């Protein structure tokens, strides 16, 4: 179990490993482009080589990439739908060139099409996005916090997508987010609650599909259906919750990535490392 944080690529992708090391990260997460859209920074083989060398120089054991936020595979707007397919595939290829282990994405919302039509479109879009992909980076679905008709806020919904007839041949994994899952009603505040949640995950999806986790406390209460990250120990999950999570043997090989505000992310890293021992 290694710990890291989401870091900036300001000034170029090759700055990310140093930015991670400066915070005390052992692993790190980044965007390879602006999450809100706009121009895409160039990525050549030379830049990728420099990036990998920087990861070694700054002792970063793993890097993962977060897809942009404007993705919606269930959009009723063809431009957004087809754009989502193109962008996520492009990000998979970029992440693979950089040697990133995973690319995680939120899939969007069913608000335009409803669940049934939306699910069929999501499956079709993801299948098109993954078709012919030969890279090393694995695609992950990130659990959502459950606001509105957001896709993937329950284990059942994630399973429904991952094991859809169009998609089960692709090795799609899951990125767990402690705050999103908590906001969606999955408790982790005690060892008993963690046990219940992990058993449920294993039964519905399979723990072998759990590849990494975002490590965030929650500003909102259990089941509040809002995406509101808090610093470790300052939220409703609390220090006892993170002790229960991070000491569970079933998670011993899962790396955790903080997405808390950078004002206290160094302290957050110190706290989780202390819990790990």
From TrEMBL:
User: What Pfam families is this protein classified in?
Assistant: AP_endonuc_2 (PF01261)
Q: What is its EC number?
A: 3.1.21.2
Where Zn(2+) 2 binds, per the record, is at 142, 177, 214, 259
Cofactor descriptive note: Binds 3 Zn(2+) ions.
This protein's UniProt keywords: DNA damage, DNA repair, Endonuclease, Hydrolase, Metal-binding, Nuclease, Zinc
Q: What are the protein's GO molecular function terms?
A: deoxyribonuclease IV (phage-T4-induced) activity; DNA binding; DNA-(apurinic or apyrimidinic site) endonuclease activity; phosphoric diester hydrolase activity; zinc ion binding
Query: What positions does the domain Xylose isomerase-like TIM barrel occupy?
Result: 18-267
Annotated SUPFAM superfamilies: Xylose isomerase-like
Q: Which cofactor does it need?
A: Zn(2+)
Q: What does this protein do?
A: Endonuclease IV plays a role in DNA repair. It cleaves phosphodiester bonds at apurinic or apyrimidinic (AP) sites, generating a 3'-hydroxyl group and a 5'-terminal sugar phosphate.
What is the protein's name according to its record? Probable endonuclease 4
Q: What is the lineage of its organism?
A: Bacteria, Candidatus Magasanikiibacteriota
- Gene transcribed to yield this protein: nfo
């Amino acid at each position: 179990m290694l710990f890291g944080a989401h870091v900036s690529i300001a000034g170029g992708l090759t700055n990310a490993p140093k930015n991670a090391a400066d915070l005390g990260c052992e692993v790190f997460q980044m965007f390879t482009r602006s999450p809100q859209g706009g121009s895409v920074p160039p990525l050549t083989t030379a830049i990728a080589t420099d990036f990998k060398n920087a990861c070694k120089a700054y002792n970063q054991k793993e890097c993962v990439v977060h897809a942009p936020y404007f993705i919606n595979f269930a959009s009723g707007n063809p431009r957004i739908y087809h754009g989502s397919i193109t962008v996520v595939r492009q990000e998979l290829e970029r992440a693979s060139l950089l040697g990133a282990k995973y690319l995680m994405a939120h899939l969007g919302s069913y608000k335009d099409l409803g669940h049934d039509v939306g699910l069929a479109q999501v499956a079709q879009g993801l299948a098109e996005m993954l078709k012919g992909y030969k890279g090393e980076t694995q695609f992950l679905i990130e659990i959502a916090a459950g606001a509105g008709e957001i896709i993937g806020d329950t284990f059942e919904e994630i399973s429904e997508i991952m094991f859809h007839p169009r998609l089960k041949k692709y090795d799609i994994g899951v990125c767990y987010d402690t705050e999103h899952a908590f906001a969606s009603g999955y408790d982790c505040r005690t060892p008993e609650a963690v046990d219940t949640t992990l058993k449920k995950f294993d039964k519905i999806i399979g723990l072998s599909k759990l590849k990494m986790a975002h490590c965030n406390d929650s500003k909102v209460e259990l089941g509040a259906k809002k995406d509101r990250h808090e610093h470790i120990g300052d939220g409703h999950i609390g220090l006892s919750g993170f002790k229960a999570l991070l000491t569970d043997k079933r998670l011993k090989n899962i790396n955790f990535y903080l997405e808390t505000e950078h004002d206290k992310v160094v302290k957050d890293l110190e706290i989780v490392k202390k819990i790990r021992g």
